[in-house]
Fold these 3 entries.
Entry 1:
Amino acid sequence: MLKVVVACGSGVATSETVVANLKTFLDDHHATGIDVQATDFKQLSSVLANYDVYVWLAKPTPEIQDICDREGIPDVNGVDILTGAKGKKVYLPFVNALMRLKDAQ
């Protein structure tokens, strides 16, 4: 199972909205085997290595980017997923990250 983490400052409203949007998108496309969870940014550095994809709502700090780079975790901009301003195109980077991971398995 692929594990996706979404993080914002508090891990409540904004990240939970993006989690809901991603789950709906995955359900609409009959994608299975993907777990999407939210966390707050304060604990992200201690849990990030347990995930396969990181969806961010604030640009990753150098520490978080180092973890992503070291662990091979794709980081995806979640701001457009939150706003939906660009329609379904906003999911393309997320889908690409998942496809690269599935191909690598």
Note: The longest helix spans residues 13-28.
Entry 2:
Amino acid sequence: MNAKKGVPLSITRREKQHGRLYELRMQQNLSQNELADRAGISRNTIMKIENGDSIPNISTYQKICAALHIELSDLFK
């Protein structure tokens, strides 16, 4: 465990990002289907990103951020 932050070392930056997407989607009360429709991508893509099974390219990130009305940097906080 990281003594400074109280975060297990097994939680990577990538895992935090996937959790952040879920968090942002929930804040806007959107289902995976709704976000996928807004972003013009498949629900399966959203599911894989949130589960950590896929790392999207920058274009996909931009579509997701536009659909959530957030800046790209907000996804990585």
Note: Helices lie at 13-27, 32-39, 43-51, 58-68, 72-75.
Entry 3:
Amino acid sequence: MSSATAGASPAYDDNRERSPYTELERAAWADLAPEMVNPLSAEEILRLQGLGDQIDLGEVEEVYLPLSRLLSLYVKAAGDLHREQEAFLRRRIPARTPFVIGLAGSVAVGKSTTARVLQQMLAHWPEHPNVALVTTDGFLYPNAELQRRGLMQRKGFPESYDRRALLKFVVDIKSGREEVEAPIYSHLVYDIVPDEKVVVRRPDIVILEGLNVLQPARVRGDGRVGLGLSDYFDFSIYVDARTRDIRHWYVDRFLRLRKTAFRNPSSYFAKYASLTHDEAVSEAQRLWDSINGPNLVENVLPTRSRADLVLRKAVDHSVRYVRLRKL
């Protein structure tokens, strides 16, 4: 995907008509929902905002309001198709399984904020008030297991996750189970919280947010292809930005954490609280260049083309254009 900035291309480009995507500049995208009312207050948006991310009423109204409407249309269409299929099969129509949205993107790109905002906005639509948000961080192997496998320096890479448990979670959701549990991850202690679970009970929509949710299925040792998480997604979103911008945001977030969460003695990263500004910058850049940057280039970014919709951010964190896969 080529980078774009405001005014770099028209709202609609006839030369792109042969592309499998429809690409809309921000102004054209915002114009799709001019009469919709933003259900979130400025205070609510502030609470949903991640550290270092920037989002305001204008961003919510111009980007996330049209997106929530589009997703609501997809949810309705899936429900209609479900009823038609059951009628065709001459079966009693059971409750349909939850609509699952996969949301991917790099560390520090703002995908967690996007996921939280979408959760709240989608829940305001009366057709689907129960919207669950689950992050794949809970499916990371515990630190003790990562150390045993020699993977502590590859935390966040695909092999650092319990992919079998993660896949089972999504399969159980799409199987219509009444209750499905997911492990809980603590960013404070940088590890799985033992014996604590988040319970998902018959949601209308599930948003599954994580670095690698759009990874394709793996090829097994015997040559057979397994199942991938995205095989069970009804819709997928990728939050995108230039790599150098994401690197800058990562360093900026690290510096903010150094003055806040890292000062908590219980924090896994408390050792960084005493660093000078220059030392903190150097350490954040080292962590990005040795772990998060390579993971983005090798594993996360290649999955962008698998998404149904891409939100492309500019250097100021604002979404500049939206790319939607054609039906």
Note: Residues 57-88 form the longest helix (32 residues).
